[in-house]
Amino acid sequence: MSALALNAEALYQELLRGVRSLCQANTRLVGITSGGAWLAERLQRDLGLPGESGRVSSVMHRDDFAQRGLSAGGQTHLPFEVDGADILVLDDVLYTGRTIRAVLNEIFDYGRPARVQLAVLVDRGGRQLPVQADYAAARVARPETQSLALARDAAGRFSFDVENKA
Q1: Sign of dihedral through CA atoms 28, 21, 105, 45?
Q2: Sheet containing 135-139: which strands, arranged edge to edge?
């Protein structure tokens, strides 16, 4: 692992400002397991939104399911009616777009929302599908040989984990 010169807590504050501008009175936050779900939980609290945020797993709709199989990432939990909902999906890192495609399929398994928007902590480019965030706290370029993921300590503070792939 190596350190990345990005301050995840500072970027979270930027994401908070951006999400505040995207949210309307009936917007429901849904985080992608696990980093996005952490962001959604904290944003729900920091924005003072009623109820709880949702979380969505991409595992059942991934195009690489045969290689990855089931992960311990958690199950989808949407504590609201999806039909007609205004949903803001949150993720830690947007890369190829394949996770977002799978997440949209998972959400539509639960109903037909009125609108789905996407906000991410970091957009690292490298898209393989025509997917873009409505809001990104930062845009950074990372080599394909590195993975970037959000980490959370016991106190709930965010940092980034960077791994070099072989």
Answers
A1: negative
A2: 54-56, 27-32, 86-94, 115-123, 135-139
- Which residue type occupies 6? L
Residues 10 and 7: their CA atoms lie apart, in Å, by 5
**What whole-number distance in Å separates Cα of residue 132 and Cα of residue 110?**
23
Cα separation of 159 and 166, whole Å?
Answer: 23
Cis preceding-peptide flag for 34 (omega within 30 of 0): yes
What distance separates the 2 farthest-apart alpha carbons in the chain?
46
Q: CA 113, 107, 63, 19: dihedral to nearest 10 degrees? A: 80
**CA-only gyration radius of the chain, Å:** 15
The structure's pTM equals 0.91
The label of the residue with tokens 């490298």 reads 126
Distance CA 69, CA 61 (A): 11
Mean pLDDT for each consecutive 10-residue tract of the chain (166 residues)? 70 98 96 96 97 93 58 82 98 96 96 98 96 97 90 96 85
